Amino acid sequence: MTKYHANAITVLGQSFDSQTEGEFYLYLLAKQQAGEITEIKLQPSFELQPRFKKDGHTIRPIIYIADFEVTHADGTIEVIDVKGFETADFKIKKKLFDYRYPDLKLTRMKKVVKFGGWITHEEWLKQKRREKSESLGKTQRSTTHRQQTPARHQRRKTSRRTV
Fold it and tell me: Which among 16, 120, 141, 152 is least buried, having the fewest CB atoms inside 10 angstroms?
């Protein structure tokens, strides 16, 4: 079991930290079969900050290990991290990655069945916002309906005094 309570799994002889990562690997293989992807690298590492010395001590480098690095058919490279949720640690590493590797795209993927399967974290946030605004719209419509209901049909509020 990993630090986020995911169970490690082996898919086609490859080890993954979670079942979700293994499923995403199968998804990538299908895209490779279709010719959309030419190369899949597993757990590529990126140095975000080199090691350095301070006050006579060597400070270790900050290394980010992604889940996948994919080369698309058009030659573009995409670094992919499969996440169930976004940790504070990942947010910092993403900022460092974007600064250090401005030419590479780091994509966070989620599997959300109700939104069609594999979607980016950003797409998921948009869908969640859309759902929220739609539910708020329904709430506002029902509130408007209550305001239009004649007073005799509304529940009367009574105040009780305690002595």
Answer: 152
